[in-house]
């Protein structure tokens, strides 16, 4: 049996700081001659290949996490992790690592343990601080070693940070950097790189404030250009001073704000481009750097938000027709970055931010920008619009409804100028979705998602005075739906799509996806629109598309409609014979087993399983000849059977009424209810009985009033004839104190498929019709009867109707397990 204790997954950290799974295997430890030391070996459980061979280095810091994870850095920027299936295996390998390094297995990080006596450690903690070597060229190597040796210990890190801060060491180091650079002292520059990188890892805000000041930050970036691992230094300062240019799209009068923007950009550049990717141990050491950038952004947003003149000028220039295209492009990009910065705000601050933008008129400004021809400007405006929709869709909905109301209040002349009131913000979004020039429709997909958010009732507000859902959906279907469905209606005027290229099909698929969402969530509004505009007929034209994904979208749309089981929809489908294009698509697909085939069969199977009677009758009466030969699934034959059972019930209303009573009360055995049923059944006149039908007379033995609730047996008989006629006899003995009527029901089955179920031995009584040896039982007769005993003692005889075979099989089992066999003295006798 496989040893699961040592079963592990091997992970490596990639450049994106994500863990990559290298495989699953079993870990072991042992001496490897090639590596000259004890090593960790992991062999794949699939083929035994070597997944990992890593020497346990005495100076490598191994870290144990969460009881089942061991993490370490194999080399710079190459981190490894072993994830164990069981804690016991992790503990076993951890003890081996600690043994090689001479550490106590109780620790979680091997290099955190300092080999000092308690007395020495106490002396270090009580010492006033760490003494730094003089800041001179010939002591840079000593300082680099001191910084490197202090980083593993939190206590030494703290002391080093205090010493660097108190002695003003950073400015001295940067002076040395300028000297080394002038002398082209490459060794000294390499030492300075290690020292400055180490100071970053001290994770101290006070040091960052010095390093990121205007007079120091460029020299700090210069130090980080001389990475010893690189043959040539980087040119970060050249990029920041010559390539990257700061543009004030709106003049910033506050010098503090301008300085804060410069600083944030440069620090972000250091984090993203200059500093090497931190190892798994160093990542937490840079948390203060992340916080420094974060709070800078929050401060910038707050300062801009408070500058009303700045925002007023911004929106004025955005909407001014005299603004040139380049300027407007810069303004929109600034506003986009401004909104992106706002994502760092806390929820209450973000509320105030978007409220300020709303008060300044951001939505009317976006409407103007989206109406422009510049594709890049429109793209940036779309991104800004997405921030607003994701943050507060109700704000956007309120704006477009107010805009519509204003358009309705203006004169007819103004309406004509405005395009009959259709130049609304939401209609601009729809038009941009429809007119997306990207072959992959990337912008259209984004805009469709925004529209879906806007029309989603789940995020609409409802108050005592108004309901946003009712108001907005009424507005949307009146002013916007015709714009959304225009490409669909224009492309489906014939029996096949007018344009069937890939891009058009993708667009129609997006529109159908949104319409399908509306069918699921809007009910009343979309139902009126579909029926009045005959949308489903147009959609089903797309089943003839050469693109399977579009045909499937059309089928999905119809399937959602049928799934609602709404008779308004059903009558619309039947009146317009809308199953016809579906049947054509099914037949044209032939015998291919694909998504099209499965989707269509599932639709019909749903109609059969849910017993949608109107659609079942419509399908069989109109399309049975086209479907009768499909026998690799039983769906269509099942539909035909459902249809015949419906007709059977229509032709025999008494039988249908009796069956419904039996079904409704099969599990509710209320004696009072059963007496009402008996009144209805036994009031049938004997004159109604036809000749040749079997009669079940009353029992020979009369019962007293006290025996009224005593159980008695009811007999049933069903005979199948060769000419496909079926006759069933349902008998019920009478109760004392009443007349002794006899009754019988018969019907002729018209189904071509013979359904039979095996008789239940527990329900056949000696002497009953159909039992072995009983009078009147024929060789071809195989009746199936079930006797169910009620709580009050009455027994209801249930006829096994052809359409109830599936249900009866389960219920017969329950009945057999629950009923008690009646003693012979209690059984009724059948008289001929």
UniProtKB/TrEMBL annotation:
Pfam families: EVH1_PP4R3, PP4R3. Residues 143-645 form the Serine/threonine-protein phosphatase 4 regulatory subunit 3-like central domain. GO terms for cellular component: nucleoplasm; protein phosphatase 4 complex. Residues 715-730 have a biased composition (Basic and acidic residues). It comes from the Eukaryota. Residues 685-832 are annotated as: Disordered. This is Serine/threonine-protein phosphatase 4 regulatory subunit 3. It comes from Amphiprion ocellaris. The lineage of its organism: Eukaryota, Metazoa, Chordata, Craniata, Vertebrata.
């Amino acid at each position: 049996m496989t040893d699961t204790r040592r079963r592990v997954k091997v992970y490596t950290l990639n450049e994106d700081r994500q863990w990559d799974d290298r495989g699953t295997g079993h870990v072991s430890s042992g001496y490897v001659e090639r590596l000259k030391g004890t090593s960790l070996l992991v062999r794949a459980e699939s083929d035994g290949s070597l997944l990992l061979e890593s020497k346990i280095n005495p100076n490598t810091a191994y870290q144990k996490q969460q009881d089942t994870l061991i993490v370490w850095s194999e080399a710079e920027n190459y981190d490894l992790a072993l994830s164990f299936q069981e804690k016991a295996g992790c503990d076993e390998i951890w003890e081996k690592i600690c043994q090689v390094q001479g550490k106590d297995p109780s620790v979680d990080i091997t290099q955190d343990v300092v080999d000092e006596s308690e007395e020495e450690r106490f002396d270090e903690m009580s010492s006033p601080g760490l003494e730094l070597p003089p800041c001179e060229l010939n002591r840079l190597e000593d300082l680099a070693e001191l910084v490197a040796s202090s980083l593993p210990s939190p206590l030494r890190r703290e002391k080093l940070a205090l010493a660097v801060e108190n002695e003003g060491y950073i400015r001295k180091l940067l002076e040395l950097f300028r000297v080394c650079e002038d002398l082209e002292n490459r060794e000294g520059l390499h030492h300075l790189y290690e020292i400055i990188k180490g100071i970053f890892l001290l994770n101290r805000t006070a040091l960052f404030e010095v390093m990121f000041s205007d007079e120091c930050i460029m020299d700090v970036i210069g130090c980080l250009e001389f990475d010893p691992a690189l043959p040539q230094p980087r040119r970060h300062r050249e990029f920041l001073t010559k390539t990257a240019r700061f543009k004030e799209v709106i003049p910033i009068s506050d010098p503090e704000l301008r300085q804060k923007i410069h600083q944030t950009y440069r620090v972000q550049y250091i984090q993203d481009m200059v500093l090497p990717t931190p190892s798994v141990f160093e990542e937490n050491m840079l948390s203060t750097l992340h916080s420094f950038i974060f709070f800078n952004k929050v401060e910038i947003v707050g300062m801009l938000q408070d500058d009303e003149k700045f925002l007023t000028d911004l929106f004025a220039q955005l909407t001014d027709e005299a603004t040139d295209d380049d300027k407007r492009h810069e303004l929109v990009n600034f506003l986009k970055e401004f909104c992106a910065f706002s994502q760092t705000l806390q929820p209450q601050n973000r509320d105030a931010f978007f409220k300020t933008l709303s008060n300044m008129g951001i939505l009317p400004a976006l409407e103007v920008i989206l109406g422009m021809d510049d594709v890049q400007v429109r793209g940036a405006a779309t991104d800004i619009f997405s921030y607003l929709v994701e943050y507060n869709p109700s704000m956007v909905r309120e704006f477009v409804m107010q805009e519509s109301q204003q358009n309705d209040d203006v004169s007819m002349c103004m309406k004509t100028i405005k395009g009959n009131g259709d130049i609304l913000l939401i209609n601009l979004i729809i038009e941009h979705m429809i007119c997306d020039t990207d072959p992959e429709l990337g912008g259209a997909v984004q805009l469709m998602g925004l529209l879906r958010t806007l029309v989603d009732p789940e995020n609409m507000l409802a108050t005592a005075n108004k309901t946003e859902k009712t108001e907005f959906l009424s507005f949307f279907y009146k002013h916007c739906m015709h714009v959304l469905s225009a490409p669909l209606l224009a492309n489906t005027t014939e029996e096949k799509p007018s344009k069937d290229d890939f891009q058009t099909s993708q667009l129609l698929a997006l529109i159908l996806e949104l319409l399908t969402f509306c069918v699921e969530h809007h009910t009343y509004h979309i139902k009126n629109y579909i029926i009045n505009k005959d949308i489903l007929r147009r959609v089903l034209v797309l089943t003839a598309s050469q693109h399977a994904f579009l045909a499937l979208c059309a089928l999905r749309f119809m399937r959602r409609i049928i799934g609602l089981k709404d008779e308004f929809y059903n009558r619309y489908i039947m009146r317009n014979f809308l199953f016809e294009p579906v049947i054509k698509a099914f037949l044209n697909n032939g015998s291919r087993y694909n998504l099209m085939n499965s989707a269509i069969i599932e639709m019909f199977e749903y109609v059969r399983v849910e017993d949608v009677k109107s659609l079942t009758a419509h399908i069989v009466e109109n399309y049975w000849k086209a479907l009768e030969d499909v026998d690799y699934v039983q769906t269509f034959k099942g539909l035909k059977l459902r249809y015949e059972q419906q007709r059977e019930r229509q032709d025999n209303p008494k039988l249908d009424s009796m069956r419904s009573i039996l079904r409704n009360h099969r599990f509710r055995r209320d004696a009072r209810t059963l007496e009402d049923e008996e009144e209805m059944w036994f009031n049938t006149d004997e004159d109604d009985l036809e000749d040749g039908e079997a009669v079940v007379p009353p029992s020979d033995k009369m019962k007293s009033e006290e025996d009224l609730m005593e159980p008695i047996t009811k007999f049933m008989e069903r005979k199948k004839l060769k000419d496909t006629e079926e006759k069933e006899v349902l008998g019920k003995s009478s109760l004392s104190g009443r007349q002794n009527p006899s009754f019988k029901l018969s019907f002729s089955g018209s189904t071509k498929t013979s359904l039979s179920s095996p008789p239940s031995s527990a329900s056949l009584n000696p002497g009953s019709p159909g039992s072995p040896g009983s009078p009147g039982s024929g060789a071809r007769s195989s009746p199936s009867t079930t006797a169910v005993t009620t709580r009050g003692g009455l027994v209801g005889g249930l006829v096994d109707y052809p359409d109830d075979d599936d249900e009866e099989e389960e219920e017969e089992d329950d009945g057999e397990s629950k009923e008690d066999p009646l003693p012979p003295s209690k059984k009724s006798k059948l008289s001929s």
